[in-house]
Write a structure and sequence with these properties.
The chain is of the alpha/beta class and 577 residues long. It has 22 helices and 18 strands.
């Protein structure tokens, strides 16, 4: 058998098994050494291939698809620093538990460490940030090796998705010539009836006796909180709110918890808890005896400060699998069980506990006061916080809101009120970076989801290359760029007091005209200066196709002052109340 036939059958069996196991999307970046993988993926009619020339943006684009689809997405690149450009997205995928299958092409072993071009050490190059690494064997076409390559494909898919999802990395050494032959008979090889490693899966359940024990421990107290941090299980919001109603406890709902939006009951949901807890004096009035938490640690810093100040609070952290996400450093009981099943077991099989109803009412009244202050209409000026209020109003019955880090995610936390609309919230909160946000949002929009992205000017600038996907594939994305000429979040930190160094080191104003970039990528660009203009524009753009960018110009110092005034008003209302 010739080299070309061996190469073709080896790669074709690998690709076909990935597709057979459930892969639907692959993101390819151009390169020579990756030719066998790229051409074979493009040839397979049952996988959607996306081509992105910038590997860093390509990886975040794949991350966005995987977030929205909640299934593994494959990445393919050539050898050398092309693979290194995947690193930020792989780190984000690892910490945010997003499944990626990273396929890097490599030089064969005889061309490594001898000065050959485009040859770097790619063995375990992503270190601890992948769940599994495999250096693939050089292509062979024996029956044993075709079973081997199918086995690795199936294992890669299942490992990426299993337990806490995350990235896996397979490194493929290829010798020249690299062009596959798609005229071969039985090109895709021999599939088994099911995938090579078919997985039967079940829920991770906690026995009734264990839930009963937790119940007995917490019912010794009167003041409890249910907290739901960032999470993606669509069934958890209803289960959590049912548990809250059953126990008559408040639910502190992070904006990425999916609890603030949807058709489930929200009478116990406290969405303004971050604003309530801003004041140390108010915070002391809302210290619980115990907390039952679902999802990752909430975005809210005041919540974290409350935990820091009160290590005596009993914590019960529900995680579906291994992993501990609690940077407070306090003692906590880890509950390894499916969150939805845990709630349903408590509600359906245990007698109700009786906690202090006055505690619940206290939170609900504070929540109403805080919301009234946050939603006050103050003339025609458009604040950064009210950007979210208007965007959420403009949504139809459903859609996805993708949010950048730094100030946008914090303003979402403050200004996203409960709604019956099916609004799905997303952000790259694994590593909390500003890189790749545009690409991730476009990935989330790749399959036709109605997506609006809100981010700052620095995050936008950091991933302008990501806009290529919008033009290349004709994707629909509405982007709101909050342009405060730099790093707005630093205006809230102690660095702002050091005027001599603040602007060059932290403020970092860009002074760029983004309209030129949007024109280059075939999008529409509008700058707004008032709340009325923004209301009209966001409403009209809901059904608009293609790339639409709205720039909202704000002042960093005015924004910081406005936020502090709101927090002071809330503090006064709650202390006087």
């Amino acid at each position: 058998m010739t080299h070309t036939e061996t190469l073709t059958r080896y790669v074709a069996n690998f690709v076909d098994e990935l597709v057979h196991t459930g892969l639907t999307d692959v993101v390819l970046s151009p390169g020579s050494r990756s030719t066998p993988l790229s051409m074979t993926f493009a040839e397979h009619e049952d996988v959607h291939h996306w081509i992105h020339v910038d590997e860093r943006s390509a990886a975040f684009f794949a991350l966005g698809i995987a977030k929205e689809q909640q299934r593994p997405v494959a990445l393919v690149c050539t050898s050398g620093t092309a693979a290194a450009n995947y690193y930020p997205a792989i780190v984000e995928a690892f910490y945010s538990r997003v499944p990626l299958i990273v396929l890097t092409a490599d030089r064969p072993h005889e061309l490594r460490n001898v000065g050959a071009p485009q040859a770097i050490d790619q063995i375990h190059m992503f270190g601890q940030y992948v769940k599994w690494f495999e250096e693939m064997a050089l292509p062979e076409s024996s029956e044993q090796m075709l079973r081997y390559v199918r086995s690795k494909a199936a294992r890669a898919f299942h490992t990426a998705l299993d337990h806490n999802a995350g990235p896996v990395h397979l490194n493929f050494p290829f010798r020249s010539p690299l062009i596959p032959d798609f005229t071969l008979d039985h090109l895709w090889g021999q599939r088994t009836e099911r995938s090579f490693h078919y997985a039967y899966k079940g829920e991770r359940k906690l026995q009734h006796e264990a839930v009963e024990e937790i119940k007995q421990r917490v019912e010794k107290h009167q003041k409890g909180l249910i907290v739901c941090g960032p999470q993606t299980d669509p069934g958890l919001p209803e289960a959590v709110t049912q548990l809250a109603r059953y126990l008559q406890l408040p639910v502190l709902a992070d904006p990425l918890s999916q609890v603030r939006a949807g058709q489930h009951e929200k009478d116990h949901v406290i969405e303004a808890y971050d604003a309530i807890l801003k004041s140390p004096g108010v915070r002391e009035q809302f210290v619980p005896d115990f907390i039952i938490r679902f999802g990752a640690m909430p975005v809210s810093k005041p919540y974290w400060l409350m935990l820091q100040d009160h290590p005596e609070i009993e914590q019960y952290v529900v995680e579906s699998y291994e992993g501990f996400r609690d940077p407070s450093g306090n003692e906590a009981s880890l509950i390894l069980a499916d969150g939805k099943q845990f709630c349903e077991t408590w509600v359906n099989h245990l007698e109700s506990s009786f906690f202090d109803v006055g505690w619940l009412k206290k939170w609900q009244e504070a929540n109403q006061k805080a919301k009234a202050i946050l939603t006050e209409v103050e003339g025609h000026n458009l604040s950064e916080g009210h950007v979210f209020t208007e965007i959420l109003k403009s949504f139809s019955e459903k859609g996805t809101l993708f949010v950048g880090n730094s100030m946008p995610i914090r303003d979402l936390d403050t200004f996203m009120l409960t709604t019956p609309k099916s609004v799905r919230t997303m952000a790259n909160r694994g590593a909390n970076g500003i890189d790749g946000v545009v690409s991730s949002a476009l990935g989330a929009a790749a399959h036709g989801e109605d997506v609006t992205l809100v981010l700052g000017d620095l995050s936008f600038f950091h991933d302008l290359n990501g806009l290529f996907a919008a033009k290349q594939f004709g994707l629909n994305l509405r982007i709101v760029v909050i342009n405060n000429e730099g790093g707005g979040i630093f205006s809230f930190l102690p660095q702002a007091e050091h005027k001599d160094h603040f602007e060059p080191l932290f403020g970092t104003p860009l002074s760029l005209d983004f309209s030129k970039v949007i024109e280059m990528y075939g999008g529409s660009f509008t700058q707004v200066n008032s709340r009325n203009e923004f209301q009209e524009l966001t409403s009209s753009l809901v059904e608009t196709k293609g790339l639409s960018v709205i720039e909202v110009k704000t002042d960093r110092e005015e924004n910081a002052t406005w936020h502090r005034q709101k927090w002071k008003q809330i503090e006064q209302a709650l202390l006087e109340g």
